[in-house]
Backbone:
């Protein structure tokens, strides 16, 4: 690590985040579970197989179009459990509250957490509260951890991905990132696009019931679909080819990206899943997804190639192709 | 050198600031350095929060259809 | 999205590329075309255009990314200003990760506590000054003839509002003089220039008069794939016919006479001066300095800057890359010591920088 200090960019979900994990945390904490670097750890307790995950939420603003930090914190952990084939059961909630946060905001956020938990069918079974001096946190940080029962008989992991696998995304990309960007005053963009924050355990259970040959699933959050696919290509050592014209993007999100010079592929999502499954089951899986509330705009966007230098290749709208790598730098407005 | 985008003027307010729209997303841009009068409904090219040129729609549409024709008949 | 999607239609791009192939074959010899502007470098990479061009057509990137050409001395000066107590340093995102001497950068300073804010318009910096009367706001003035008028307009607004805590550190540069330098460079043999579309909105065709006079092609080009493919085709037509001129492909945005109002505002606040281009050295008359009448808005007059002890990273050949003499892989540090995560030279830092664009887009996808 060449930087002496932690930079904002280390939290962006891109190249520096990846380096933080692989060069600081993994060497010191390495064990067979951790080094799989999946969204959840799948553990065997007695003869039961459980999945366990944790995530922190430091979003600013606390309330954004389509959600707030409370529902986000529940959905994120539920989704991390579900993409590993787990049925989410119990979650924890750790609050780090800044001195001066209006109690009314805290009630609103907690109510939203309760509703999200009820909808996802999970219970908040343990928690913790700390208060820090004014200025040490943007109002509120929330950490949620979660436990689920793994019931899908096949291991869902990057290692299970096979050549020829179909790559399916459950809907439009970049919605959450765009919704949050439109609330950052210094960017000066006004938009009605809503965050896609949602609990996906129902949709994912339906996908797994529809096909015994789902090999891997991930929920692309920070860093967007582009970062997750680049990471999976690197971890699996395979070529992943995506057709840009088939990746669904809302018009307003394309508008924000034109104004700010961003690429929707790298904007955050909070209610999407990317599915790798056997090509023979792709149509069936797509049909099931489109029949579900959170999968209406599901789309087949590409396929997995042979094993070679793990790369993500994008076939552009004009038919040429280019390699896509983990994003670098923060998403900030530029003039060039 | 410069990222810019075409937006449609929705409103023109005081302080010489216009609200432009690009497929549902809106942004305020200053009209301080544009060199011809613009009106609501015009498309303007915007860079770094300023409108720098009224987009010439007639030229744009005429050129596009001309280009399509050339390519369809492989004249180019 | 109107006036965007129409210029990304595959059949138009394919048709134009077929015509480019035919015209390049007709010319037969190797043709070297330079895209001056970093935003063109980015668009060419984003749409994978470089790899679908004919073999005898070499597309090289020029010194057109405002961050890449900012001298290390200017970067160090910016870092010094940003670190001063009580200063709010406002900058476009492009400058955030540019390494100064010793590898320090604005992101590093911000992590150490400096108040560095990213803006999407020069007007934002004026707002910071109005909202924080007890702080000194310094706006980093980077960019060419498209951005300089917006900074000048912000200075006029600040003067109008009587703000005394706002100033600009100008490292603005202009295009004509650097084109002359490129044409005079013996190591370069450029047959045609893809001229920057949005700079030309302001300057008009006059800025490129020297190119046809030197017997080379010049086409002012937009930034969508159809624009770029057509711009290249128009350059090849000029080369094949031997009739050189400053042509306008980006006719929906660029008038021959440009934007007089913007030039007026720019000239009211700035005057031409010498500028130190990273990798190219000092080019006289190629920079924009703040006029004496606006001295109170000039960061160079408001703050005294230490004598620069700036030093480039040893082995960094950003200069040759910026001039198009070297391609990124030919630089000894490319993807060895100098990587996107740890950029040593400016060409790797900015998203539009030749090396960053090459790393992102050009690596052979097979």
Residues:
């Amino acid at each position: 690590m060449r930087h002496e200090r932690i930079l904002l960019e280390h939290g962006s979900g891109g190249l520096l985040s990846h380096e933080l994990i692989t060069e600081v945390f993994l060497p010191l904490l390495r064990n067979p579970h951790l080094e799989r670097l999946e969204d959840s750890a799948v553990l065997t307790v007695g003869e039961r197989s459980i999945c366990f995950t944790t995530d922190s939420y430091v979003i600013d603003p606390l309330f954004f179009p389509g959600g707030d930090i409370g529902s986000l914190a529940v959905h994120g952990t539920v989704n991390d459990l579900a993409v590993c084939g787990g049925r989410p059961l119990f979650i924890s909630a750790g609050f780090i509250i800044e001195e001066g946060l209006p109690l009314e905001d805290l009630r609103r956020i907690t109510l939203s957490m309760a509703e999200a938990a009820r909808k996802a069918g999970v219970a908040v079974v343990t928690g913790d509260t700390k208060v820090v001096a004014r200025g040490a946190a943007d109002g509120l940080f929330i950490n949620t951890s979660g436990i689920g029962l793994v019931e899908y008989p096949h291991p869902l992991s990057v290692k299970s991905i096979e050549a020829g696998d179909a790559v399916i995304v459950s809907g439009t990309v970049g919605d959450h990132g765009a919704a949050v960007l439109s609330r950052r005053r210094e960017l000066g963009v006004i938009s009605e696009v809503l965050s896609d924050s949602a609990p996906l355990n129902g949709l994912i259970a339906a996908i797994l019931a529809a096909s015994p040959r789902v090999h891997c699933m991930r929920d692309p959050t920070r860093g967007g679909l582009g970062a997750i696919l680049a990471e999976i290509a690197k971890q699996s050592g395979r070529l992943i080819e995506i057709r840009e014209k088939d990746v669904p993007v809302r018009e307003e999100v394309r508008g924000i990206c034109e104004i700010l010079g961003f690429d929707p592929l790298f904007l955050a999502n909070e209610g999407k899943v990317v599915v790798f499954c056997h090509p023979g089951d792709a149509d069936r899986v797509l049909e099931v997804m489109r029949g579900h509330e959170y999968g209406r705009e599901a789309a087949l966007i590409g396929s997995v190639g042979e094993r070679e230098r793990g790369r993500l290749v994008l076939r552009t709208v004009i038919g040429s192709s280019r390699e896509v790598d983990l994003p670098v730098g923060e998403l900030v407005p530029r003039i060039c | 050198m410069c990222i810019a985008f075409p937006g449609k003027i929705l409103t023109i307010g005081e302080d010489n600031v216009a609200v432009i729209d690009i497929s549902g997303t809106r942004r305020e841009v200053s009209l301080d350095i544009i060199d011809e009068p613009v009106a609501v409904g015009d498309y303007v090219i915007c860079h770094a929060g300023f409108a720098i040129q009224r987009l010439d729609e007639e030229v744009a549409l005429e050129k596009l259809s001309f280009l399509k024709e050339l390519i369809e008949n492989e004249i180019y | 999205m109107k006036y965007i999607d129409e210029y990304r239609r595959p059949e138009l791009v394919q048709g134009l590329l077929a015509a480019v192939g035919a015209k390049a074959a007709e010319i037969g010899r190797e043709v070297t075309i330079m895209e001056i502007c970093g935003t063109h470098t980015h668009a060419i990479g984003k749409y994978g255009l470089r790899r679908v061009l004919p073999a005898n057509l070499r597309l090289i990137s020029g010194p057109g990314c405002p961050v890449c050409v900012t001298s290390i001395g200017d970067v160090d000066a910016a870092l010094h200003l940003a670190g001063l107590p009580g200063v709010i340093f406002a900058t476009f995102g492009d400058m955030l990760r540019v390494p100064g001497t010793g590898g320090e950068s604005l992101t590093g300073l911000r992590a150490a506590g400096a108040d560095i804010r990213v803006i999407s318009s020069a007007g934002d910096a004026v707002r910071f000054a109005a909202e924080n009367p007890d702080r000194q706001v310094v706006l980093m003035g980077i960019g060419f003839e498209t951005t300089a008028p917006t900074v000048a307009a912000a200075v006029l607004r600040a003067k109008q509002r009587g703000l005394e805590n706002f100033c600009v550190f100008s490292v603005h540069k202009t295009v004509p003089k650097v084109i002359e330098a490129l044409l005079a460079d013996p190591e370069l043999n450029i047959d045609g220039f893809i001229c920057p579309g949005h700079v030309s909105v302001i300057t008009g065709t006059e800025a490129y008069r020297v190119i046809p006079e030197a017997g080379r092609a010049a086409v002012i080009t937009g930034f969508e794939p159809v624009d770029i493919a057509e711009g290249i085709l128009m350059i090849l037509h000029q080369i094949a016919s031997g009739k050189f001129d400053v042509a306008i492909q980006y006719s929906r945005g660029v008038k021959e006479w440009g934007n007089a109002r913007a030039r007026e505002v720019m000239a009211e606040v700035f005057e031409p001066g010498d500028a130190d281009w990273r990798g190219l050295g000092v080019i006289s008359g190629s920079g924009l300095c703040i006029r004496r009448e606006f001295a109170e808005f000039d960061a160079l007059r408001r703050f005294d800057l230490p004598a620069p002890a700036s030093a480039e990273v040893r082995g960094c050949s950003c200069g040759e890359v910026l001039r198009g003499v070297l391609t990124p892989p030919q630089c000894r540090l490319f993807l060895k010591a100098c990587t996107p995560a740890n950029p040593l030279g400016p060409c790797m830092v900015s998203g539009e920088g030749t090396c960053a664009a090459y790393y992102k887009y050009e690596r052979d996808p097979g």
Q: What stands out?
A: The domain at 5-72 of chain B is CATH 2.30.30.140 (SH3 type barrels.). The interface with chain A takes residues 1-3, 5, 7, 19, 21-28, 46-49 of chain B (CB under 8 Å). The mean pLDDT of chain B is 94. The first strand of chain B starts at residue 5 and ends at 12.
